[in-house]
Write a structure and sequence with these properties.
heterodimer, A: mainly alpha, B: about 500 residues, mainly alpha, globular
Chain lengths: ~650, ~500
């Protein structure tokens, strides 16, 4: 078997789901079966490292190869997707066949992405994943706001895709190939262009500053879609790419510091935004940016293996948290985190969500705590200030994780949520089961604390893990305790939801610290205004300018050969005459303005012809007269037959 | 064989025009006539498919058919194919079959409509296969006349004025073209219009003012037809008022005559002068890309929007050609990939934009307007129309897996190697086109369905089948383009002197 099976299985599965659209009962089981089979193929691929190639032309070959961290991803992607798709099949009733088919096809595209062995294959998968997420985010297409959100998300990530075009072009220009393996032999400045392109693409896809707000737009999609995009797929591709290419690009002097800077800035600002947010899904979305920021920080510190561990841990607990948010939103009919408080109503779901929240907060012995410990150790390895910044980010993530869990699934009687008169819609078995599966995976990742696990991570992700000092663990625990203490204090003083801020201030800052407003004012509006201006200029100025340019052109050509010009001149008159007569014959024709224009233009060209009658070249004019006559006869015949 | 592909539709059009009108009256008669015309139009497609199978990828003109015509002037009837003209001729034949089969308001003149369409098919195929400058020019000019009548007589809105504007602008473009052909002819030794001989002779290899003037004549002629900014303003009104199938042919086939001329004549016969002006041409192309996309973004009329994206896409073609024509040695691989990309863009744009104009014709037939704000939520009622338009729109914005990407990525990759700055600016074109096409899909198909479109009909079976053929090739080229790229590469590699 070749590596092509890996994406082909889900893509064919998507086709099957479309074919089965008339049988709603079969859809869920078939979708889950296809993805379960894909997990099996993924395990096989991780073990045997298959490859495949498709030649496009003598210059271009597309290649898939399961290698490096890709071996982890080919298992992780379908493994996380399976319970999410089961959840979607059970909860989403509107357009279910399309939704499930798109989700399964999306997994296929994502598998191409993680198996790509060259920039062109990567670019293809990268953009396909983006386009499919457009369709997924805009799934509820009857509401125009969803379509607009999907478009915004697609455009932002496509801006990042340009980076891959640059990286692909620079690799080809320098090496004559697109293969990742060729980067090593590329010199400066091409290698710097590759590094810049990769960073741009990765930052946009992984929702880093300044691209982060697109994840808020992506919240327009159904909750299972958010769970899929945020965990092991779309958003993960940026971090995956950095992990995969870090060894080749680390030699570019500014590359790793730039990755680290983007990552830590996003980790801290995303943490603040997540703490401020009052919309359940947006709080999780900001946390996604922040967590990927930590992965960027780890890569920037030179430890892609630590980022890899964080990616896997995050995939498990974030998909769990999103499904939990979906249950909560479904139960209450609102995403306002101040109105949820479902602890007493759905205790089992609350417990499962708590597993995810504790992993997000990095509480040992969960896997999320181990990977965050590695990120911290890596940052400390680079510099003390960097390490301190990671500790701040860790404090924020523990704080917002606690705040989210208490507000969404707490039992206390704070806020208006508790006396909500609407009946609670309870989750079914599939929802609980899907969450239980992801919670099990989250718990199983506690095995990362076992001795020897580090070696396995190093082997799987490539590269080494940082040395972790004992005081770092103490510092982490102290920060964790501080964060929980603050959360407890806020909770008991009744300020957990509002944080003592005025609602308007909180809403403005919670909307990515005003970043979307800035993008809209500095990018979107100017482009729209400019395009409007250009449209007016096009219609009023250029259209007139063309006429002048044509005149200049005929003056120049008149200097060449006036004989030819003469016969052309005659031809123009002939055609003009034919036009006039046919227009006269037609019932439609009464447009004196147009007729006048023909004559005026004909006269103008004729004048030019007369003025340039001095030069004599060529002897072929009679043939052009014949040609003109032939044209006229033909035109006349056709005019008669109208 | 190739001559048959040119003359069977031309002869058929004459025969058709002489037919009595009685047989074609009434809806049944019109349908019968459309079926016959489609069958005739398919003959050149089959012949070109056979030529494709026999094609040897030798890098020279193949399957040449030649006859003396006016030997004292070195004018001959010469046709043949290479890796540039074969894909274009095939695309032309395909777009014609689909367009002729596509239902349209015949305005009670079915015979003349199908006769003109078949005539234009033969002429267009002839232009791409012609290996003689004189023959090329004859086909060039005659195609204008046929298109003029198609727009003027079967168009809507202000059709007469738009047709006239189209005719005068493009005809003004063929004047400098004719002068340039003669200018080139006069320096050949022995004097000849034979393209292969002129390419061998390279009569203007030295450059100089004369060469620049001849170059300018060709350039303006082709730039108007392509069209390049600022020579493009004839295009939107012509498209808006033309019937859907004529629009499809205008965008799909006639624009390619300009870009084809750039390669076949300017780059092949005057490579030194092209290399001299490659950078300014590249800049002009980037202006077309960004400007065309931005003006398209501001449009509210569906057809004007698609027309301006044609300006944008032809910018990609010219950018690829500018890059390919630089005389930079050591970058032959990048130049070849740019030339391959530009050629594939010609084919891809023909299929994609041809398809988009046919779908907009279907919109007009159902809704009576091209104003996008008048529609909305049509996905509820018209699933095939939505699906096909969405695939074509995504193809046009360059989504991988579809034909446009295969072309554009090669143009970008080639350009990055030669003119990185131009490539960086041009890349923003694909963001703007993405924005405008997604907005178009949103306005037409998503959101709430207005009350007045509660009975909006989906595509008929004929329409869906015709568009399905185009979509099939758009996907085929997008996923597995080796059969096309290998043929184009057989031309592009030797053309740039790739070792």
């Amino acid at each position: 078997m070749s590596a092509i099976v890996l994406p082909l299985l889900p893509v064919l599965g998507a086709g099957l789901l479309i074919a089965l659209r008339g049988r709603p009962r079969a859809l869920g089981p078939v979708a889950v079966a296809v993805l379960a089979a894909t997990v099996a193929v993924g395990v096989w691929a991780a073990l045997t490292e298959p490859s495949a190639a498709l030649r496009w032309s003598p210059a271009i070959e597309l290649r898939l190869a399961v290698e490096g961290f890709g071996r982890v991803m080919v298992v992780l992607v379908p493994l996380i997707a399976t319970p999410i798709v089961a959840y979607a099949a059970a909860t989403e009733t509107d357009g279910r066949p399309r939704l499930l088919a798109l989700m399964v096809a999306f997994v296929g595209a994502m598998l191409v992405l993680v198996a790509a062995a060259d920039f062109l294959t990567l670019l293809i998968a990268w953009e396909l994943v983006g386009a499919l997420s457009w369709a997924l985010i805009g799934h509820g297409w009857r509401d125009p706001e969803n379509g607009r959100s999907a478009t915004r998300a697609f455009l932002t990530t496509r801006l990042g895709d340009l980076g891959l075009y640059v990286a692909a072009g620079a690799t080809f220009a320098a090496s004559g190939s697109f293969a990742f393996g060729a980067i090593g032999g590329v010199g400066s400045p091409a290698r710097e262009m590759i590094a810049a392109g990769v960073l741009l693409a990765a930052a946009a896809k992984s929702a880093q500053v300044p691209f982060a707000p697109w994840l808020f737009a992506a919240m327009a999609g159904p909750t299972p879609v958010s769970a899929l995009l945020h965990s092991a797929t779309l958003v993960a591709s940026g971090a995956y790419l950095l992990i995969r290419l870090e060894p080749s690009l680390a030699t570019v002097s500014w590359f790793l510091p730039a990755v680290a800077l983007v990552g830590i800035v996003t980790a801290i600002s995303g943490g603040i935004v997540a703490t401020l947010q009052t919309h359940a899904k947006r709080a999780l979305a900001a946390s996604t940016s922040a967590q990927y920021g930590l992965m960027f920080a780890a890569v920037g510190a030179g430890f892609p293996a630590a980022a890899g561990a964080q990616l896997v841990a995050h995939a498990a607990f974030k998909s769990l948290l999103f499904l939990g948010a979906g249950v909560a939103i479904h139960a209450r009919g609102t995403a306002d985190i101040g109105r949820l408080r479902l602890g007493r109503a759905v205790p089992r779901i609350a417990l499962l969500s708590a597993v995810g929240a504790l992993a997000l907060a990095a509480v040992p012995p969960l896997g999320g705590a181990w990977s965050k410990e590695q990120v911290l150790a890596g940052a400390m390895d680079a510099s003390g200030w960097f390490g301190a910044a990671v500790l701040v980010a860790g404090f924020l993530s523990a704080l917002y994780a606690a705040r989210y869990q208490v507000l969404a699934y707490g039992r206390a009687a704070e806020g208006p949520g508790t006396d909500d008169p609407n009946p609670i819609r309870r989750p079914g078995r599939v929802e609980t089961g899907s969450m239980a599966a992801l919670a099990t995976l989250t718990l199983a990742l506690s095995l990362l604390w076992m001795p020897g696990a580090g070696r396995i991570v190093e082997e799987a992700a490539g590269g080494r893990l940082p040395e972790s000092a004992p005081w770092e663990i103490v510092a982490t625990l102290a920060v964790l305790a501080a964060a929980f203490g603050v959360a407890w204090w806020l909770h008991h003083s009744g300020r957990l939801l509002r944080l003592g801020l005025r609602p308007a201030v909180q809403a403005a800052a919670g909307n990515w610290l005003g970043l979307p407003v800035a993008v809209s004012m500095l990018v979107e509006r100017p482009v729209i205004v400019l395009s409007g201006w250009l449209r007016v200029i096009d219609e009023r100025v250029i259209d007139a300018g063309v006429r002048r340019a044509a005149w200049v052109a005929s003056v120049i050509s008149g200097l060449f050969s006036r004989r030819v010009e003469l016969s052309i001149d005659g031809l123009v008159h002939l055609v003009g005459a034919v036009t006039l007569s046919s227009a006269a014959g037609s019932r439609l024709a009464d447009d004196a303005g147009v007729d006048a224009a023909v004559e005026a233009t004909g006269r103008g060209i004729g004048l030019l012809g007369h003025q340039s009658r001095r030069l004599q070249t060529g002897q072929s004019h009679q043939y052009f007269v014949i040609l003109g006559a032939g044209l006229a006869v033909m035109a006349a015949v056709l005019a008669i037959y109208r | 064989m190739l001559s048959a592909a040119i003359f069977i539709p031309i002869v058929a059009s004459v025969v058709l025009a002489l037919l009595p009108r009685r047989g074609a009256s009434g809806p049944a008669g019109e349908r019968r006539l459309q079926l016959i015309a489609t069958a005739i139009a398919a003959i050149p497609l089959l012949l070109i498919a056979v030529a494709w199978l026999r094609f040897g990828s030798t890098g020279r003109f193949e399957q040449v058919e030649a006859l003396d015509w006016i030997p004292t002037l070195g004018i001959g009837y010469r046709v043949g194919v290479d890796g540039l003209s074969l894909p274009l001729a095939a695309m032309t034949a395909l777009v014609f079959v689909v367009s002729i089969a596509f239902p349209v308001d015949l305005k009670g003149r079915p015979i003349a409509y199908f006769a003109l369409m078949l005539f234009l098919e033969g002429v267009s195929i002839g232009l791409f296969l012609a290996l003689d400058l004189f023959l090329f020019f004859v086909f060039w000019d005659v195609s204008l006349v046929a298109m003029y009548f198609l727009i003027g007589a079967w168009g809507h809105g202000d059709a007469q004025r738009s047709a006239l504007k189209f005719f005068l602008y493009t005809f003004a473009g063929s004047l400098p073209l004719l002068l340039a052909i003669l200018g080139l002819y006069l320096v050949t030794e022995p004097r000849t219009f034979d393209m292969a001989q002129i390419i061998r002779q390279q009569p203007l290899a030295g450059g100089g003012l004369y060469a620049v003037l001849v170059f300018a004549g060709f350039f303006i002629g082709f730039a108007i037809k392509t069209p390049l900014v600022p020579f493009h303003t004839w295009l939107p009104p012509a498209h808006v008022d033309a019937p859907g199938p004529a629009s499809a042919i205008l965008a799909g086939v006639l624009l390619k005559m300009g870009t084809y001329g750039f390669v076949r004549i300017l780059m092949a016969m005057m490579p030194d002068t092209w290399a001299q002006f490659a950078l300014p041409i590249g800049i002009l192309a980037v202006i077309s890309i960004v400007y065309g996309a931005l003006v398209a973004l501001a449009q509210t009329n569906l057809k004007r929007l698609i027309a301006y994206t044609s300006v944008n896409h032809m910018g990609y073609v010219i950018l690829g050609l500018a890059v390919a024509g630089t005389a930079i040695t050591g970058q032959e691989a990048a130049r070849a990939i740019a030339l391959t990309g530009a050629t594939v863009e010609m084919v891809a744009h023909g299929l994609i934009t041809g398809g988009l104009f046919l779908t907009s014709g279907a919109m007009l037939a159902r809704g009576g307007t091209y104003e996008m704000d008048q529609y909305g939520g049509l996905l509820t009622r018209a699933r095939s129309l939505t699906g096909i338009t969405a695939v074509l729109a995504f193809a046009s914005l360059g989504l991988p897996g579809l034909a446009g990407f295969v072309a554009e990525v090669q143009v970008f990759v080639g350009t990055l190697a030669i003119y990185p700055g131009l490539a960086a600016i041009a890349l923003f074109g694909i963001i703007i086109t993405a924005a405008l096409f997604l907005r178009m899909l949103q306005k037409l198909f998503l959101g709430a369905l207005p009350e007045r479109w509660k009975r909006f009909p989906d595509l008929s079976r004929v329409e869906a089948a015709a568009l399905g053929v185009l979509v099939f090739f758009v996907i085929l080229i997008g996923v597995a383009p080796a059969w096309l790229l290998n043929v184009v590469d057989s031309f592009a590699g030797p053309f740039v002197g790739r070792p």
